[in-house]
What we know:
Low-confidence stretches: none
Number of helices: 2
Oligomer: single chain
Strand order of the largest sheet: 3-1-2-8
Helix content: 10-25%
Strand content: over 45%
Largest sheet: 4 strands, mixed
Radius of gyration: 18 Å
Amino acid sequence: xxxxxxxxxxxxxxxxxxxxxxxxxxxxxxxxxxxxxxxxxxxxxxxxxxxxxxxxxxxxxxxxxxxxxxxxxxxxxxxxxxxxxxxxxxxxxxxxxxxxxxxxxxxxxxxxxxxxxxxxxxxxxxxxxxxxxxxxx
Length: 137
């Protein structure tokens, strides 16, 4: 399961100034406590405030995070027929790293070709700065 965490952390800027910044992460974890622990492990010697942790609506991360590219959330609609023969829709989110909305749309469109009845509904840039894979013991 993916969790998202929002933190405030003191960072030293290129100018040498120390400033408190807000950052938003996504990680795979099994519990809220585990997600919080991951954040403290990421910033072991920093003044840190984990002020929000929540279950993410993201079901899948489509590609690896690249340092110079932001994340985009794509809302995908899965169309299926229920037991009564009625057509139903289920929406879910996927996360994609790309240079632009156009590139994120192209990557997601390629993902949609996996053979299911999927449709792209929306692509938008998000403030998530990184994906953290948890290293379980």
